[in-house]
Write a structure and sequence with these properties.
The chain crosses the membrane at residues 19-47, 67-92, 113-146, 204-228. The protein has 7 helices and 2 strands; from the N terminus they run αααααββαα. By secondary structure, it is mainly alpha-helical. The protein has a two-stranded antiparallel ribbon.
Length: 245
């Protein structure tokens, strides 16, 4: 066998679906974790400076945000390892399915591990659908504030009393009802929308939501690839049992 044929054979064992899913998963998780972490910090700064100036009023929210940031660290570490493991499993199962190398044989243990990855990837896919939906919530909240600021700048708003246009974040349950001031109106609201924290946090939340969506797509690709490889390996194991008798 020549060098060209050997290279073609090796390239045939590359799990392209798992490779694409791994790249997409790493990119999505990096965007979600990195942008989400910075956006949470910016959100806390906005609340402390404009909506809840008493520390005790948003103490629980501060603890929740810090907890979510620690969870983000765990998510990033877990999916870095899980992506590498799934890519390695993809190389193994692809080579076993295509029977490129004689040393790659299907065993009961190998099929059980493949089945475990199929089940775990399905569970993670469902979990990330929830994460994707949850990450859209701050985008919706910031969009409401942003659209309210745009309404203030419209010609119609200039003809009326701008101070009557307000945003009350207490109605979203972010801070308690006894928080002071709890809402921003008129020029104060306009100043909030012009701050770098608001502009940065709003766009970072959008990117984080897009990263969560990319991770969901990556897990769907993983699910299709692992399910197909597991089904083929199980079918081949039955063929091997039939040829022995």
């Amino acid at each position: 066998m020549g060098c060209f044929e050997c290279c073609i054979k090796c390239l045939g064992g590359v799990p392209y679906a798992s490779l694409v899913a791994t790249i997409l998963c790493f990119s999505g998780v990096a965007l979600f974790c990195g942008c989400g972490h910075v956006a949470l910090t910016g959100t806390l700064t906005i609340l402390e400076n404009h909506f809840s100036k008493v520390t005790s009023d948003h103490a629980m929210l501060t603890d929740v945000i810090q907890l979510m940031q620690y969870v983000i660290y765990g998510i990033a570490s877990f999916f870095f390892l899980y992506g590498i493991i799934l890519l390695a499993e993809g190389f193994y199962t692809t080579s076993a399915v295509k029977e490129l190398h004689s040393e790659f044989k299907t065993t009961i243990c190998g099929r059980c591990i493949s089945g475990m990855f199929v089940f775990l990837t399905y569970i993670l896919g469902i979990a990330w659908l929830g994460v994707f939906g949850f990450s859209a919530v701050p985008v919706f909240l910031f969009y409401n504030i942003w659209s309210t600021c745009n309404a203030m700048r419209s010609p119609v708003a200039n003809l009326t009393n701008v101070d009557t246009i307000c945003v009350d974040v207490r109605q979203y349950g972010i801070i308690p009802w006894n928080a002071s001031p709890g809402k921003a109106c008129g020029s104060t609201l306009g100043d909030i929308c012009n701050t770098s924290e608001f502009y940065l946090s709003y766009h970072l939340y959008i990117i984080a939501c897009a990263g969560a969506g990319a991770t969901v797509i990556a897990l769907l690709i993983y699910m299709m690839a692992t399910t197909y490889n597991f089904a083929v390996l199980k079918f081949k194991s039955r063929e091997d049992c039939c040829t022995k008798f």
